[in-house]
Amino acid sequence: MNLCELLGSRYEEKNNYGYYGPNGCAQYKVVSSKHVFKISKELPFSEAGFCEPLATVIHGIHRLRVQPGENILIIGAGTMGLLNTQVARYYGAEVIISELLKKKRNTAEELGFKKIIDPSQGNFVDKINNYTKNSELNSIIIAVGADKAYEQAFKVAPMLCKFLIFAASFPSPKWDIDPNLVHYKIWEIIGTYGASLKDYQEASELLSKKIFNLKPLTEKKFTLTNIQEAFKKDSSPGSYRVSMIL
Q: Global pTM?
């Protein structure tokens, strides 16, 4: 499903009602049964709505081949960054978080993470080495689409490091890659996008079991009558997930 080259083609023209896209704000939608996954009735809709983003994170973690005890640096502690941190921890990794905004660093602390770095303060490489206790990073997940994030990743990547390119941004961030470094340091650069049905199944089961703490990532709820306020809040810097309710 996530490899389909024609996935977005059906949204390029208006539907019968004059709208583009998959009718995300509709009350009802008809879909194939294979695309429906059971969620616990005890799970709030605002948290059940994390099934799709959580599935994409699980997909990326699978591609990264995370093993228990590995050191993983995650750059960016926005909604998707903190989903990555929680899934990586669930799979047994030791997680280090790099985040500029104090609000997001505080949210990471609220979720129980201790190894948190403000990259604007002090020596970034020394801080990483302090947290890894002179062992090396196994992987770096870039969860924010910013030039500086890619620069940081290269500064601390050791031999045999894997990079997971999770975030997209428009315009595209710049990343000056030295092919010789990739060659001699035996780096892996891994892309990830979307999720498979298996990933959705795993996400729905983990959500139903309340494995992850999603409350700090659900910042505010709006009714459909206030949807413009919701768009404004969602597009403001530092915001987490905004939910729409009937």
A: 0.89
